[in-house]
């Protein structure tokens, strides 16, 4: 996916007034959200693609994969996780090389604005768009496919921490993988294949236990598989946990793996992130 979003200008302070860090972060977040909404391709791909995939797959597959669990219900949970990964890992991995290649990041680094404000703006954009996308997917799924929303506070709490840990891990990994792209055009070529492969092996398009065992083992190394599994514990019956590879939803392991990827992503960001291209030095 490519984007034609114009490079952003650094957030400017109002004359005679020095805004605090929180104010700068909010301004930067609004700027990032505005840029996202102005890019029609990004909006359609990020917000529309998961909905389109749900409509297509629900029309093709309508069998039950377990008592009281249809394939559509199973698939919807995977698409919610995919949507969160798309807005964080995939979008950041594609956008940041474009900004770097156009010299936007170099200009940011030369301003008095604290560097963390730029990162905070990206995080706020991911959170805002992620919430909007999840709400859209849930609304479509409830209205058209009889998805049952969680009935207890504990289920909603699980949904919350799985989403937070998953988005945090994917955001950090998206910032880190952006350094692999040498030019603006290569960002999509680097990130999109990784995202697609993870979707196919992580139990998004297919029932996870139907995949070859070696593929399951590879998928278990990455966050998306655990995001899908955690969300299945929220939207599918408790009895379906017996269908998981470990015989249960393994929420403790879900939290452990996602938390570990947050640490790994942070370390990769701190050690690999570049503000300029190699030609800029």
TrEMBL record:
It comes from the Bacteria. It is a multi-pass membrane protein. The keyword Transport applies. GO terms for molecular function: ABC-type transporter activity. GO terms for cellular component: ATP-binding cassette (ABC) transporter complex. InterPro entries: ABC2_TM (IPR013525), ABC2_TM_bact-type (IPR047817), ABC_2_transport (IPR000412), Nod_factor_ABC_transporter (IPR051784). Residues 41-276 form the ABC transmembrane type-2 domain. Keywords: Antibiotic resistance, Cell membrane, Membrane, Transmembrane, Transmembrane helix, Transport. Residues 7-20 have a biased composition (Low complexity). PANTHER family: NODULATION PROTEIN J. This is Transport permease protein. It comes from Micromonospora chersina. The lineage of its organism: Bacteria, Bacillati, Actinomycetota, Actinomycetes, Micromonosporales.
């Amino acid at each position: 996916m490519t984007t034609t979003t114009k490079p952003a200008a650094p957030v400017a302070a109002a004359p005679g007034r020095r805004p605090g860090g929180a104010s700068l972060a909010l301004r930067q977040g609004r700027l990032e959200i505005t840029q996202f909404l102005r890019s029609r391709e990004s909006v359609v791909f990020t917000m529309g693609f998961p909905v389109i995939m749900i409509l297509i797959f629900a029309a093709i597959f309508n069998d039950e994969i377990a008592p009281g669990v249809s394939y559509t219900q199973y698939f919807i949970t995977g698409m919610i996780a995919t949507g969160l990964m798309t807005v964080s890992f995939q979008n950041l991995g594609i956008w940041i090389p474009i900004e770097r290649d156009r010299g936007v990041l170099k200009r940011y680094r030369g301003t008095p604005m604290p560097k963390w404000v730029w990162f905070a703006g990206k995080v706020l954009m991911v959170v805002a768009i992620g919430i909007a996308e999840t709400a859209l997917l849930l609304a479509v799924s409830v209205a058209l496919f009889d998805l049952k929303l969680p009935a207890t506070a504990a289920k909603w709490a699980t949904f919350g921490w799985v989403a937070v840990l998953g988005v945090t891990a994917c955001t950090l990994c998206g910032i880190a993988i952006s350094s692999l792209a040498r030019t603006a055009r290569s960002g999509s070529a680097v990130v999109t294949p990784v995202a697609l492969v993870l979707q196919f092996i992580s139990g998004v398009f297919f029932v996870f236990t139907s995949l070859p065992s070696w593929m399951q083992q590879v998928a278990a190394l990455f966050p998306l598989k655990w995001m899908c599994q955690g969300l299945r514990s929220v939207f599918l019956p408790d009895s379906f946990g017996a269908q998981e590879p470990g015989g249960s939803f393994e929420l403790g392991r879900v939290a452990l793996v996602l938390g570990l990827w947050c640490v790994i992503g942070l370390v990769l960001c701190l050690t690999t992130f570049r503000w300029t291209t190699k030609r800029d030095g």
